[in-house]
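PROTEIN DATA CARD
Card holder: DUF3817 domain-containing protein
Chain length: 96
Origin: Formosa undariae
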Amino acid sequence: MYSLLKTLRIVGFLEGISYILLLGVAVPVKYVLDDPQYVKLLGMPHGLLFVAYIVLALLVGIELKWSVKTIGLVLIASLVPFGTFIADSKYFKPAS
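Structure generated from the sequence above:
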């Protein structure tokens, strides 16, 4: 059975990939080629993954009794490109 932590790791990975694609591909295409199609295509899935990551991070933090500082750092990681990958290696992987 999947634990919340495993689900968070998967969602964090997908959220990180979607964020990199959004910032690295879709936004440049929108402004350089004047084609907003990719932002529309990637924006909604990224938004859903972002919300899922936040909710799961809070639930896992409560379940594993993380400090407020750790929960805050894990949440801030979702705002930084590659942040979810760093959070995974520093906080999620050791807890598995």
